[in-house]
User: Fold these one by one.
Assistant:
Number 1:
Amino acid sequence: MTIFQAIVVGIVQGLTEFLPVSSSGHIELSKAILGVHLEDNLEFSIAVHVATVLSTLLVFRKEIVELIAGLFRFENNQQTQYVFKLLVSAIPVGVVGVLFKDEIESLFEGNLIVVGVMLLVTSALLALTRLIKRPIAKPITYIDSIIIGISQTFAILPGLSRSGATISTGLLLGKDRDETARFSFLMVIIPVLGAAFIDIVKGDAVNVLTAPLIAGFIAAFVSGFLACSFMLRIVRKGNLYWFAIYCALVGVIALIFA
């Protein structure tokens, strides 16, 4: 992988991790266009994913400090409950990731048909948030955490947007827009860091710093920070239907060139 290719893939990862257009789907499209094979470069994949997590930590730094402070009071307070809800939301994707790791990885082999179909599903989910009105915004419960976590699990499929699925699910459950977006972005921290930790402990990833890896990391971090900040404003305004149109168009293109 060249430095240019690494920067492009890093930008795509950072932007599409938070924009509801499917990072996995766009990464597959990028691989097809650029002719790169991330399956043989696990270290790079881990680097760009960790970079987007770090950008999330930066955007929500105040909230995270409050959550940590509340958690270490060792009380059943609001912050402690919120942290446990985030942990609960990670259970479905953790179970599926451990039990079906090989089957999941087999989907990421340039299968543009899967990408195209799942992008159309993402489009439909985003469109539903505009068609279905929920007048009363309710706080996120433990049951909601499981449901949103299940939607995140389905988003393992390339082309099905993680942020699109989780935010749409939260809104369709009648949750507050700001709270739904915050929960959606914070809940990704646990599974991404957990998966990276497992790969490193198992020795699947080698601790090698290269120029493309560093370039991709920086590109993913900067673009992720900008995308996360931008997406928070978009969710507040309820303009997700523009992304629904985009996903539908890209989905059709992916199916045409599959």
Note: DSSP finds 13 helices and no strands in the chain.
Number 2:
Amino acid sequence: MTWISIYNPKGIGDVLLVSGGQASTTQVVTKTVGDVTQIKNEKTGAVVGYNIQQAAQYFQLDKELTSEEAGLVTLSSAQEKQLNDLIEKAGFEAITLDNSPKFVVGYVESCVDHPDSDHLHLTKTQVGEGVTLQIVCGAPNIKAGQKVVVAKPGAMMPSGKEIWASELRGIESYGMICSERELNLANASQKRGILVLEDDANIGEPFEINTAEKVAV
């Protein structure tokens, strides 16, 4: 399971959000012990997140972040241990954060029509290190043989939207193939369609965008 940490003090206060999946507010149940709140998917019983109140008391986090800077934070190994100490002291199970790059160069290995849609496509997309993800994509210009930008599960888009495994018309999808606009690139095209990279782009290489990812100190 992919776990990420998010800090947005001006938006939600001094709370470290630890997210491991997606569930709407109407689908979750919570349990709070001290400053730790566990969040579960009510339907499946899976733990999808933890909220750590008064986060700056436990971690050296910048409470003066601007709205552009707020977002994903990378905790050090010592801070991850502190996080798990808090979680376990509250009686919950420890987690392992995933600090690997979430936006990478991908290669569309295959692309076929979705069996239950007139505009969606089902792709097999390489993302490096021998990993191929099944990703459903609705872009009109998607096709096999392209180098693209993939937002892997656990990515946070510049808009603040988190990317997790999902299901589109009955087909599982593990990430998103991104457009220039979704990546908030300078002078981004407003036309529908994914960003197609040059052929010499290296599969699996991190793709730098304005995600405002910060390293906690």
Note: DSSP finds three helices and 15 strands in the chain.
